[in-house]
């Protein structure tokens, strides 16, 4: 995992540390293969499902992710 991703996103407040860890994992996967689709970048079905579930979560708002990025 790229250290810059962790530094940029570790302060993101998503209400649960597991959500922040998931965000870091998703960004790491996608940035490692920017040309890949989500399933290709995720590598496994469980990682793909976790990514889509994260994006579909009512607890995750784009503004929360932006704020964490701005706070870094």
From TrEMBL:
InterPro entries in alphabetical order: RNaseH-like_sf, TN5-like_N_sf, Transposase_Tn5-like_N
A Pfam family the protein falls into: Tnp_DNA_bind
Transposase Tn5-like N-terminal domain: residues covered: 1-58
Protein name, entry field: Transposase Tn5-like N-terminal domain-containing protein
Protein source organism: Cylindrospermopsis raciborskii CENA302
Classification of source organism: Bacteria, Bacillati, Cyanobacteriota, Cyanophyceae, Nostocales
């Amino acid at each position: 995992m790229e250290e810059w991703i962790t530094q940029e996103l570790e302060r993101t407040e998503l209400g649960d540390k597991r959500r922040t860890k998931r965000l870091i994992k998703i960004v790491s996967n996608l940035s490692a293969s920017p040309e890949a689709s989500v399933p290709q970048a995720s590598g496994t079905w469980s990682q793909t499902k976790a990514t889509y579930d994260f994006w579909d979560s009512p607890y995750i708002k784009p503004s929360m992710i932006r704020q964490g990025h701005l706070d870094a």
